[in-house]
Design brief:
CATH class of the largest domain: Alpha Beta
Largest sheet: 7 strands, parallel
Number of domains: 2
CATH topology of the largest domain: Rossmann fold
Helix content: 40-55%
Radius of gyration: 18 Å
Oligomer: single chain
Number of strands: 7
Order of helices and strands: EHEHEHEHEHHEHHHEH
Strand order of the largest sheet: 3-2-1-4-5-6-7
CATH architecture of the largest domain: 3-Layer(aba) Sandwich
Length: about 290
């Protein structure tokens, strides 16, 4: 544990997509602030996704990272497309920790391969949008006053013509549409949870240095002028997306916001769509306030 005052001591967090990337970073930072962790990840391939999904070994590494910081964690394999699997993972954590205070609906993919027409659309929407709803469905009954729900959206998904450009196919459209719907989903749900003092906010990263960004299909979308672009080739194009001259943020940059939103420091912040985007939305030309 780090810091003299742990803002989340005594709280329990349920995190989807926790085996690596932003999910693992969230698990580590929340644990460092005193939270006990319930971690879940699919740990198997999704055929329409062009990059390797997290493995059981990745999930085990998350466990090691949390425990090395003095944290307690229950980790289970589970697919957000299945309420039954999510409920089983949550039950294992509740049996161990006895309560639930924080929900990080973080799991998401960028589907791109169509094994048959529309599969990337189906997988993208099922995981990026319906998976969030399933997470809400299994956790709602266990949340009490001062609980915090944090959904992972995407600034890139909210910029027209970026992720949903033809180079990324039906799956790119699924990703963009799902993330846009989550922004409104957050506002609607927040209004109805507010009387119970349960907060819900959606966080929107720009390019983030994870597997979702780092694969050949994305490099090609950003560098269509090249036949086989590498990460190094794509970095100048990544950098052009942000107003600040950086190619991407790190998962830990999002985790700092997650800790704030999970803590009582944000006790009156709800229904917000918060970007950590280095000015990319402003640079895109979207009107102020959108």
């Amino acid at each position: 544990m780090t810091g003299e005052v742990m803002r989340l001591k005594g709280k329990v967090a349920f995190i989807t997509g926790a085996a690596r990337g932003q999910g693992r970073a969230h698990a580590i930072r929340l644990a460092e602030e005193g939270a006990e962790i319930i971690a879940v990840d699919i740990c198997e391939p999704v055929p329409s996704v062009p990059y390797p999904m997290a493995s059981k070994e990745d999930l085990e590494q998350t466990v090691k990272e949390v425990e090395s910081r003095g944290g307690r964690i229950v980790a289970r394999v589970g697919d957000v497309r299945s309420r039954e699997q999510l409920a089983a993972a949550l039950r294992a954590g509740l049996d161990e920790f006895g309560r639930l205070d924080i929900v990080c609906a973080n799991a998401g993919v960028q589907s791109m391969y169509d094994e048959y027409l529309g599969q990337s659309w189906i997988d993208g929407v099922d995981i990026d949008l319906v998976g969030v709803h399933h997470t809400m469905a299994v956790t709602f009954p266990h949340l009490g006053e001062n609980a915090s729900i944090i959904i992972t959206g995407s600034t890139a998904g909210m910029i027209p013509g970026l992720v949903d450009n033809p180079a990324l196919g039906f799956g790119g459209a699924a990703y963009s549409w799902s993330k846009q719907i989550l922004a409104r989903y957050t506002e609607v749900v927040a209004l109805h949870l507010a009387p119970k003092f349960i907060r819900i906010n959606c966080i929107h990263p720009t390019n983030c240095d994870t597997q979702l960004l780092n694969h050949e299909t994305v490099y090609k979308a950003f560098r269509p002028d090249m036949e086989n672009p590498t990460k190094e080739d794509a970095i100048p194009a990544f950098t052009m997306m942000q107003a600040m001259p950086i190619p991407f943020i790190q998962p830990e940059d999002m985790s700092k916001l997650v800790v704030f939103l999970a803590s009582d420091d944000s006790r009156f912040i709800t229904g917000q769509n918060i970007r950590v985007d280095a000015g990319s939305m402003l640079k895109s030309g979207r009107p102020i306030g959108t």
